[in-house]
Design a protein that fits this description.
CATH topology of the largest domain: Rossmann fold
Distance between the termini: 53 Å
Strand content: 5-15%
Structural class: alpha/beta
Helix content: 40-55%
CATH superfamily of the largest domain: NAD(P)-binding Rossmann-like Domain
Order of helices and strands: EHEHHEHEHEHEHEHEHHHHEHEEHEHEHE
Number of domains: 2
Largest sheet: 6 strands, parallel
C-alpha cells in the first residue's frame, strides 16, 4: 500500500481521502484551516454526504487516515500527492487555477523525488503542463485522475465507479496511479494527460446537454398534450440514450455542471472551435428556471406581490447540503423580486442563504397561510407528507411540483390544483 497526500479537504479531497484509506493506503489530508482540521480529526464533517462520516470514523480508527494543517507534513514522505483544491469559475467562464498552482508551487519544495502529483481537481485542458511548471521539479511526474462523483451518491460512485480514468506522460506512471484503486472493479482508461482532462469536461457537459434537452422536451409535452414522464420512460429503454439524467426539473446546478460547461465552452471558443450545443444548453437551463417562475406566477391569480409562497427544498439536489448554483435559489430570488414572501424548508439547511428568505423547521410549517406550494428539490421525505394536512394549513390550493415528486392523484384528492413539469 502507498503513502498518499491529499491537498484540500473539500468535497473531492475528503471523499477521496476517506476512500483511499478504506482501500488500505496511508492517507494524510491537508487543509489550511486549523479549526476545520481539528474537527475532521474528531470526525466532525463540514459537508453532508450519506455514509461519508462513517468512512472517516473508520479511517481515523484504523490509523490510516489523518488530517493536518498545511501541505508540508502531508507531503514530506508521500509517494502520490492528490491536488483537490478549488477551481472556481472566473468572470469569462474559464476555471481559475490560482489555488491549484499555489499548491503545486508549495509541493515543489516538499515532495520526495519520484513523487507523482495528481490533478484530481477539475482543471482545464493543458493544466498539467502549468502544474509541472509550478512544481519546477523534473524528477516529479504530473498525472490527471479526474473525479466523477455525484453529490448524494459520492461513496457509491467512488467504490463502484463507471470507469477510472488516468492520464500521464508515460504508461508506467499511469499504471501506478491506477493501481491505487486495486480492490475496485471498474474499467480503467489509460491515456495521455490532455485526453484525461478532456474526458472530465466532456462528460459533465454532455450531462448538462442531456438535462437541458429533457427539460425542453417536457415543455413541448405540455404544449402538445403528452406526458413527459411516459415520454422519458420510453426514451430511456433505448440503450443509446439511457434512462439516467432524463428527469425534468427546475434546471441543473451545483458545483460542477454549470462551472464545467462554461469552462468547456470557453476552451472551445479560445481554441477556435465554438461549441454551439453547449451554449444552447446553458441558455436552455436559464429558460427552464424562468419557466418554473412562470408556473408559480400563473398559480397565484392576484399576482405574486404580497403573496406567500411555501418552498420545499433549497439544495441543488437531494442528499446534499450544497447550495452552490442551486436552481431553487435562482427561482426564489425571482419570486422575491416579484414581491412574494417565501418560506422554505430544507432538511440540510439551517440558515437562510438569501436575504429576506424565511426558514421553517418542518415542511408543513412552511405551508402556513401559503398561497402556493412549490417543490424545488427532490428530497424523498417530501413525497411522504400528508398533502391533506398541507392543504389544511394553506390559504391557496395550488402546487407547482418542479420535480414531479409528489403523487398527483393524492394532491388532487387533497383539494389541490397540481402543476408538474411536462404533464
Amino acid at each position: 500500500m502507498s503513502n498518499l497526500a491529499i491537498i484540500g479537504t473539500g468535497y473531492v479531497g475528503l471523499t477521496t481521502g476517506a476512500v483511499m484509506a478504506h482501500l488500505g493506503h496511508q492517507v494524510t489530508c491537508a487543509d489550511l484551516d486549523p479549526a476545520k482540521v481539528e474537527k475532521l480529526n474528531q470526525a466532525e464533517l463540514h459537508i453532508y454526504e450519506p455514509g461519508l462520516r462513517e468512512l472517516v470514523v473508520a479511517g481515523l480508527a484504523s490509523g490510516r487516515l489523518r488530517f493536518v494543517v498545511g501541505a508540508a507534513e502531508a507531503a514530506e514522505a508521500c509517494e502520490f500527492a492528490f491536488l483537490c483544491v478549488q477551481t472556481p469559475q472566473g468572470a469569462d467562464g474559464e476555471a481559475d487555477l490560482t489555488w491549484v498552482l499555489a499548491a503545486a508551487a508549495e509541493l515543489g519544495h516538499i515532495v520526495p523525488p519520484g513523487t507523482v502529483v495528481i490533478n484530481k481537481s477539475t482543471v482545464p485542458v493543458g493544466s498539467a503542463a502549468r502544474v509541472a511548471a509550478a512544481l519546477a521539479r523534473p524528477d516529479v511526474t504530473v498525472a490527471s485522475n479526474p473525479e466523477f462523483l455525484r453529490e448524494g451518491t459520492a461513496l457509491a460512485d467512488c467504490l463502484n465507479p463507471d470507469r477510472i480514468v488516468v492520464g500521464a506522460p508515460d504508461v508506467a506512471a499511469a499504471q501506478a496511479v491506477a493501481a491505487l484503486y486495486d480492490g475496485i472493479t471498474a474499467p480503467v482508461v489509460i491515456t495521455d494527460v490532455t485526453s484525461a482532462e478532456m474526458i472530465k469536461y466532456a462528460s459533465n457537459a454532455f450531462l448538462a446537454v442531456k438535462l437541458s434537452y429533457v427539460n425542453e422536451i417536457a415543455a413541448l409535452c405540455e404544449r402538445v398534450g403528452a406526458d413527459a414522464l411516459d415520454v422519458v420512460q420510453g426514451m430511456g429503454f433505448d440503450q443509446r440514450i439511457g434512462k439516467d439524467a432524463l428527469k425534468p426539473g427546475p434546471g441543473w446546478g451545483g458545483s460542477c455542471l454549470p462551472k464545467d460547461t462554461a469552462a468547456l465552452a470557453h476552451m472551445a471558443a479560445t481554441a477556435g472551435a465554438p461549441a454551439g450545443v453547449l451554449q444552447a444548453a446553458m441558455h436552455a437551463n436559464n429558460e427552464q428556471r424562468r419557466r418554473v417562475v412562470a408556473k408559480v406566477t400563473a398559480a397565484v391569480p392576484n399576482g405574486l406581490h404580497g403573496a406567500r409562497v411555501a418552498v420545499w427544498g433549497l439544495t441543488f439536489k437531494a442528499n446534499t447540503d450544497d447550495l452552490r448554483d442551486s436552481p431553487s435559489l435562482a427561482v426564489i430570488q425571482v419570486l422575491q423580486q416579484l414581491g412574494a414572501t417565501v418560506v422554505a424548508h430544507d432538511p440540510q439547511v439551517e440558515a437562510a442563504p438569501l436575504e429576506g428568505l424565511l426558514l421553517a423547521s418542518e415542511p408543513l410549517l412552511a405551508c402556513e397561510q401559503a398561497d402556493v406550494l412549490v417543490v424545488l428539490t427532490e428530497w424523498p421525505q417530501f413525497a411522504a407528507i400528508d398533502l391533506a394536512e398541507a392543504a389544511a394549513r394553506m390559504t391557496g390550493r395550488e402546487i407547482v411540483d418542479a420535480r414531479n415528486l409528489l403523487d398527483r392523484s393524492a394532491a388532487v384528492a387533497a383539494g389541490f390544483h397540481y402543476v408538474g413539469l411536462g404533464r
